[in-house]
């Protein structure tokens, strides 16, 4: 009868009849000691230490052990000075483990080596319980080494995606094991989750510093350097002009001012922007941390750029994630200046209208430089001022010579530049014209009166510019002139070949090329834009000559709208969107969410300009609705606010109740993200009132849902549950199935927070089934995490673990920026409920670092609570109090009442363990007061338990929890 022994876990003996029952106590340790030394033998003196007695006691113990082994007693043989177990390697898991490791070391094929290591590791059933501590430590180290080698091989074989979850658990179990941390970082990085990889590294750094006062080793630091996103160095300067001529004195002065603020002022057409950009390129090496550029549109037909909008754009260019942008404009200015305080950056502020527009954009760091251009002198701007006038005759002739390869007689050239009033812009346009025509004919035209002279602004310089514009315009073919005119009235800051083609109603690429050749349009990186004077000239031409321009701009607006709605479908954010009639035109189509997001990012300025145009009408609110999902996920609040405000104004002007409801709902969501819950409720309620007039709809269900969640957050639980229930009813009546799934998920979570756990599970399982059927990953992730929470609170955390791991994967797929925080929050909680407190602590610390990096008060507070709870279970009650106290402050700032209750109870439980029952009772009483006031009864039993333990509760009054 074959026998098999196992020591890698609980000590077990099996034969053909099944498990062999062994006596407990010393005999098990005696057998385990012999098995660890199978085939070698153990001295009697060493075995005496195991049985703790005399030689006679050892003899008695050995007799009892052989009797317990029954027919297998002969595996133990007596030696002259001890005993030995003689068995084959297939009869002991430890021997098999060692043989498989040895075989793996000899294996050259990585896949085969990994398979051998997997087989060896599968022999382990847990921590050995019958072996001496030093033996256990040695075996555990061998096992861990084999595990690390297996993971290393699987990483090399491309198995990174499947390793992430396993490695997270291992890192939680061995938080200071740098090789495992490095492997997790690499697995995350190769899964396109670089930010998470960096967070794992930072969590290890914090732990090493806190516990050992050390930094990670050089190998891990080198890996972190490879994976960390490089410091963003913006390079936003427009292209430098080819063959720059003149302005030597001004260039010298501006170069001397590099590192300070310089303001270039002068009339239109004098080349202020060209000079600023040229100087910026000359001195850019002095600013190794980058160059920022913005056209403030101070004198453009388009609305001027607000300072707050420009700062938000600069912050993103400097590498600040959109979700980390402060909501308050003053805080944005402070962040902008603090970032630049550490850097040497050149800032070019082009076409400023006023000092007020410029001041918030000025850095205060000594190492930064600023170049401002304006038609105004900006006398009250704290800067060195450089006034720009027309070119001297020498400079003007030099520019003409640079532009035109053919040599002209001095008299003709002088007459030409005089006619251009020595203005660089006019000379450039004239030079482009005579490059392919006769200068004499052109001069004859200049001497005559252009048919568009009436469009010129008073003043010689402006007249010269407009005359030059007119002559170049007249020389174009009719179809090129028409496109030029239409571009002048198109909303937006620039154009692509695609948008110009839509505007013209014909292929625009060759027409755009001709306009660039004529110096009437500028081209960079696949996009085209006007000088502001040329845009105004084109606009005037259009208004004077083009009778159907409104149809063309409407066609472009419809194209932008169709593209935006296609992008919304491709990204599938799961946020409510109204079903409007199909757009009149067709727009860009997308095969995946990445290309859709890229198009919206590139066209966002034009989309906002289209939506905010005075005559946008329904395009305004429909663009705002189509873009909201992407603006929410990308945290682009300035653009969101512009679109929603414009959409609401247009809807009111059109007296469109549905559009007003949609825009109020959008503004409510915006207020929510700004932590202005009362203001959000006002907007949501305005939307709901208008929706009600139109009958049951997805929009009404969405508005009621949002109001309900806001009331839950404010601690008005009964009202919140009532509104969420109504939202569910309306969604079902309207046939809005995704909204129904959202309502079920949120209602389930509300039931969790109010302590109705069985009802919560019912709602959440129904919502999960529905959202899986609909295939919406984002809402499925929400249902999964909420269901895990409900199961955990029911005392069934093991049933929820796989759910939250799936949710984490889905959040990553959808690009939901807060999904990773939601998943880490629940992962920490569920591991704590499973008794895996080291893992819970690791997830909590990872989430805390991520929340702090995003300046998210609510999740910072929640993760402080998770870390505090894990610390208390690990025996650090004092540290737990500190974490929960910090969590209370953060969650108070974030108006998270459920989180506040958790903080108070965490403090109470930890203080009770410290013997500080009076303080514990106070915290528990404060938590109960919040629970009674809000109806958020999830943690009521915890509070009552603390009161009972501290003797401050009448148990006869305790309620029964569902």
UniProtKB/TrEMBL annotation:
Residues 951-962 have a biased composition (Basic and acidic residues). Residues 258-401 form the AAA+ ATPase domain. It comes from the Bacteria. GO terms for molecular function: ADP binding; DNA binding. Signal peptide: none annotated. Residues 942-962 are annotated as: Disordered. CDD domains: BTAD. Keywords: Transcription, Transcription regulation. The keyword Plastid does not apply. Transmembrane segments: none annotated. GO terms for biological process: regulation of DNA-templated transcription. InterPro entries: AAA+_ATPase, AfsR-DnrI-RedD_regulator, BTAD, P-loop_NTPase, Sig_transdc_resp-reg_C-effctor, TPR-like_helical_dom_sf, TPR_rpt, WH-like_DNA-bd_sf. Residues 92-228 form the Bacterial transcriptional activator domain. SMART domains: AAA (SM00382), BTAD (SM01043), TPR (SM00028). The keyword Electron transport does not apply. This is Tetratricopeptide repeat protein.
């Amino acid at each position: 009868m074959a026998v098999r022994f196992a020591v890698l876990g609980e000590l077990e003996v099996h034969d053909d009849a099944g498990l062999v029952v062994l006596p407990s106590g010393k005999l098990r340790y005696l057998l385990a000691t012999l098995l660890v030394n199978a085939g070698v033998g153990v001295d009697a003196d060493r075995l005496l230490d195991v049985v703790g007695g005399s030689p006679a006691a050892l003899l008695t113990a050995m007799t009892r052990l052989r009797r317990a082994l029954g027919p297998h007693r002969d595996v133990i043989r007596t030696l002259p000075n001890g005993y030995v177990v003689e068995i084959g390697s297939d009869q002991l898991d430890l021997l098999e483990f060692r043989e498989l490791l040895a075989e793996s070391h000899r294996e050259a094929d990585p896949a085969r080596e990994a398979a051998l290591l997997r087989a060896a590791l599968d022999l382990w059933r847990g921590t050995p319980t019958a072996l001496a501590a030093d033996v256990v430590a040695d075996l555990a180290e061998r096992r861990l080494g084999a595990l690390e080698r297996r993971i290393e091989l699987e990483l090399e074989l491309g198995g990174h995606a499947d390793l992430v979850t396993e490695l997270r658990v291992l890192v939680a179990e061995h938080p200071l094991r740098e090789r495992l941390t490095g492997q997790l970082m690499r697995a995350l990085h190769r899964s396109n989750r670089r930010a998470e990889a960096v967070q794992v590294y930072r969590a290890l750094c914090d732990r090493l510093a806190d516990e050992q006062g050390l930094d990670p080793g050089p190998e891990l630091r080198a890996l972190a350097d490879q994976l960390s996103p490089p410091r963003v160095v913006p390079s936003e300067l427009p292209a430098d002009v080819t063959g720059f001529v003149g302005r030597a004195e001004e260039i010298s002065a501006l170069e001397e001012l590099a590192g300070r603020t310089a303001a270039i002022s002068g009339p239109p057409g004098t080349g202020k922007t060209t000079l600023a950009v040229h100087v910026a390129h000359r001195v850019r090496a002095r600013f190794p941390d980058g160059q920022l550029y913005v056209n403030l549109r101070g004198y453009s037909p388009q609305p001027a750029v607000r300072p707050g909008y420009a700062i938000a754009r600069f912050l993103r260019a400097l590498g600040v994630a959109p979700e980390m942008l402060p909501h308050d404009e003053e805080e944005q200015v402070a962040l902008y200046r603090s970032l630049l305080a550490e850097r040497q950056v050149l800032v070019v502020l082009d076409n400023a209208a006023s000092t007020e527009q410029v001041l918030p954009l000025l850095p205060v760091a000594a190492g930064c430089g600023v170049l401002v251009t304006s038609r105004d002198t900006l006398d009250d701007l704290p800067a060195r001022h450089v006034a720009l006038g027309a070119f001297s005759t020498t400079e003007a002739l030099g520019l003409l010579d640079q532009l035109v390869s053919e040599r002209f007689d001095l008299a003709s050239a002088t007459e030409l530049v005089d006619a251009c009033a020595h203005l660089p812009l006019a000379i450039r346009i004239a030079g482009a014209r005579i490059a392919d025509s006769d200068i004499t004919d052109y001069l004859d035209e200049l001497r005559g009166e252009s048919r568009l002279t009436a469009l010129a602004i008073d003043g010689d310089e402006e007249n010269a510019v407009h005359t030059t514009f007119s002559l170049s315009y007249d020389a174009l073919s009719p179809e090129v002139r028409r496109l030029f005119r239409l571009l002048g009235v198109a909303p937006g800051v620039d154009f692509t070949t695609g948008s110009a083609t839509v505007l013209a109603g014909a292929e625009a690429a060759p027409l755009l090329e001709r306009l660039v050749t004529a110096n009437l349009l500028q081209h960079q990186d696949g996009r085209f834009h006007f000088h502001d004077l040329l845009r105004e000239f084109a606009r005037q031409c259009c208004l004077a000559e083009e009778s159907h321009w409104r149809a063309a701009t409407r066609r472009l607006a419809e194209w932008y709208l169709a593209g935006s709605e296609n992008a919304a479908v491709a990204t599938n954010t799961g946020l409510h969107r109204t079903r409007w009639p199909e757009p009149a035109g067709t727009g860009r189509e997308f095969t995946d969410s990445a290309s859709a997001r890229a198009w919206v990012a590139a066209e966002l300025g034009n989309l906002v300009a289209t939506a905010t145009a005075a005559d946008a009408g329904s395009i305004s609110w429909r663009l705002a609705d189509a873009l909201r999902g992407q603006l929410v996920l990308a945290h682009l609040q300035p653009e969101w606010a512009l679109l929603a405000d414009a959409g609401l104004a247009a809807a009111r002007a059109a007296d469109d109740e549905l559009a007003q409801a949609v825009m109020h709902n959008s503004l409510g969501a915006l207020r929510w993200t700004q932590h202005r819950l009362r203001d959000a409720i006002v907007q949501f309620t305005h939307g709901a009132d208008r929706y009600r007039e139109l009958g049951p709809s997805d929009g009404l269900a969405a508005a009621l849902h949002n109001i309900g969640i806001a009331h839950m957050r404010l601690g008005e639980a009964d009202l919140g549950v009532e509104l969420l229930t109504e939202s569910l009813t309306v969604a079902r009546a309207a046939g809005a199935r995704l909204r129904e799934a959202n309502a079920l998920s949120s209602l389930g979570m509300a039931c969790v927070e109010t302590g109705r756990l069985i009802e919560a599970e019912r709602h959440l399982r129904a919502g999960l089934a529905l959202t899986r059927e609909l295939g919406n990953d984002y809402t499925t992730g929400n249902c999964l995490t909420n269901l895990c929470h409900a199961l955990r609170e029911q005392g069934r955390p093991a049933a929820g673990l796989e759910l939250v791991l799936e949710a984490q994967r889905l959040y990553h797929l959808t690009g939901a920026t807060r999904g990773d925080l939601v998943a880490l929050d629940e992962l920490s909680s569920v591991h704590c409920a499973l008794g895996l407190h080291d893992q819970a602590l690791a997830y909590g610390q990872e989430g805390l670092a991520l929340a702090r990096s995003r300046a998210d008060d609510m999740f910072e507070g929640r993760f402080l609570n998770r870390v505090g709870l894990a610390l208390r279970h690990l025996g650090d009650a004092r540290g737990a109090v500190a974490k929960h106290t910090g969590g209370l402050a953060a969650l108070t700032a974030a108006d998270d009442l459920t989180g506040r209750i958790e903080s108070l109870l965490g403090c109470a439980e930890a203080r009770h363990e410290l013997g500080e029952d009076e303080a514990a009772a106070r915290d528990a009483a404060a938590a109960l007061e919040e629970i009674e006031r809000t109806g958020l009864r999830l943690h009521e039993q915890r509070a009552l338990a603390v009161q009972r333990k501290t003797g401050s509760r009448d148990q006869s009054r305790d309620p029964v929890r569902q």
